[in-house]
Each structure stands twice: as C-alpha cells, then as structure tokens.
Write a structure and sequence with these properties.
The protein is of the alpha/beta class. The protein is built from 14 helices and 11 strands. Helix content is about 40%, strand content about 15%. The structure holds pyridoxal-5'-phosphate (PLP). The site of pyridoxal-5'-phosphate has 13 residues, from helix 5.
Amino acid sequence: MITSRRGFLRSLGGCAAAGLARRCPLEGVSRAALLEPSRFNKDDGLIHLDSNENPYAPSTKVADAIRSSLGNANRYPRMEYKSLVERIAGFHSVKPERVLLGCGSTEILRVAAFAFVGNGKQLIQATPTFEAIEHYARAAGSEVISVRLTPAFAHDLDGMLAGATASTTLVYICNPNNPTATLTPRKELEAFIGKLPASSFVVIDEAYHEYAGQSGMYASFIDHPLDDERVIVTRTFSQVYGLAGLRLGYAVASPKLVQQMQKFATEDNINEVVTQAAAVALDDTEGVDNFVQRNTDDRQEFFNEAMAHALKPIDSHANFVMMNSFHPAVEVVQHFRDSNILIGRPFPAMDTYIRISLGLPEEMRAFWQAWDVLPYPKHLSHH
Ligand SMILES: Cc1ncc(COP(=O)(O)O)c(C=O)c1O
C-alpha cells in the first residue's frame, strides 16, 4: 500500500526500473524535469486521478509569474481584470466586449443559468455530462431535461431537439464531453443549433478544447464561430494550463449576453495572482504544446495498458478516460480510495463506468496495480 505520494514517487525509478516493456511515454525527459512541477502538487498521500487536472503543471514560466505576482496580493485586481479581458480577446481575435471572466468556468455556468433559466423555464442537457449548470439551473427554479448520450456517447441532438419547447431557454453542450471524453460532430451541432427554438441560448463548454484539436470531427465555436448570437462558449485555465487551483475561466459570447451574465457575476471574481499567471500562460505556447503532447503519450499508454487487461475504454479526446468496470462504480471508486487513489465520482447514468483522469506515469502504474487486485471479475470475457 502506498502511504504517501512523495514516498511513492521516491519508491519508483524511471520507466526502465519499473520494468515496463512498452515504450515509456516520457523517454528522454529527465526524471528531474518530470517531477519538477510536482513541488506545487498537494502532498496529501493521495493520488489525484479524479478531477481532470493537469498533473504536470503549471509550466515553469507560469510558476514564475505566480511567484512574482504574490507581492501584489494586497491589491484588488481591477486594472488587471480589464487587461486580462483584452489579452483573452486578442488571443481569440474578438472584441473585449465579447469576453466575460469567471472564477473558474464554473462561475460562467452559474451566471448563464441565473441569466437564462428560472421558474417556468427549461435547461436541456445530455446525461451523463458535467453537472454544474444543472445544479445552478435547479437552484434558479428551472426544470432540467436530461437526454441520454447516443450509443457512440455523443449528444443525442435529435432527442434534445425533441425535448425542446418555447420554454427551453438554455441548452448545454459539453464538447468534448465530461465524463465520457467523447466528441459530438461539429456539423451535427451546427444543424442542431439552427433548429433550436429562437428562445434558446446555447452554452458550448470547451473546457477540454486543447486536447480535442486533432480530430476532423471537432472545431471550436470560438475559433470557427457561427453567425448566431445565441451561442456562449466557455473555456477554462483549469485543465491544460494547469491552473485549477487559481480559478479562472471565461466566456466568449455576444456583447449583449456578456452584459446579461455579468449582472450575476461576483464583483471582483478573479484574483491578482491568476491575472498574471493567465497572461503568461496564453503566451506560453511551448508549454501548452508540451502538456498536450504529454497527455497524448499518457493517454496512449493508458490504452495500451487497458488493451493488455482486455479492456476497451471509450475513445478519449480529453485528459481523462472512461471505461466500463463491469461492476458498480461506487464500489470500484471505494476500492481505489482504499489504495489512496482518487478516481472520478460515479455517474449514475453509466453506473458501472469509471472515469480516470490521466496522472503522472508513476501514478498510472499505481492505478493499474490497484486495478489488478480488484476483488471481482473485471473484463469483457465476463459479459
Ligand atoms: C466540462 C467542464 N466544464 C467546466 C469545468 C469547471 O472548471 P473550472 O471551474 O475549474 O473552470 C469542468 C471541471 O472539471 C469541466 O469538466
């Protein structure tokens, strides 16, 4: 049993020492370089494969920006708010009036719910999907209609359309979808949005955008916008940029919708440190490319390992993987917890599936070790 993360990492050598016959995903990267960012990681004795964070980050440049910003912690970040909005607007080649910052993209989801649904109104979403907007829509008094993903784990857009009425004022599309890491084809989304009632605003959550970039099925609604002022796109610094702990997300939408949502946002909802970190992170394309490449390698390694275990995870377009454990997920999650490994929460709509965020190679080896001692049958041949 692994009793502390630091001890665990110490106990492991490089890939070769761990006896892996397959290609080490980080061959050529020195162990020191690999572990360097971990001085920022929590040392709570747990392996965190539960929240889709970037396990390597923040990058060195971003970490330096964080450190140098600390001296301004006594100031409200008001000037910085404006310059960060301009910086993000510049990054996406849109007008600053189209950008709204949030305390994580979770705040954007909250303000979208409070601005666009309420008593007598409806939110339509997929299930399973990221649940924050559902919680806030319910808190705002709205009805929530959840439509099962298709057998290919895409949004069932026809089903969602069939559920839409004149009181459907908000539609949530998470693409790539959390928890399945799957894509809904861009062309189908365009046709779907065109057919929605005029009353419906559409939130497209692109939290995992950077990991989806390679697929022909995918195109961001920020980079390739529709001529439709009902679309609100959300992004976050929590994933590829490695800044989940600093809380910054944003929306790109029409100036009118930005204003409507802004009314519900917390005053001074961002912090001095993250304004500096985010500005550097946006410039650090090398850092982002590096993290995306590492994720690609780590994801490939996960699939290799899964195949060796006769498992077939759902094809992943993100930094996490969902797979059928053929056993109640609640118990599987607890089994991992007993080994000091946190994996994703159970998603009731897929109650034998588990979601695993990709961690450091060492952490993933611990995952598979714990998998191997699950006390029940656990692969395809049993079904
Ligand atoms: C799809 C999706 N949207 C939004 C969020 C919220 O991220 P944050 O509030 O950290 O930006 C998450 C976090 O896991 C997510 O998976």
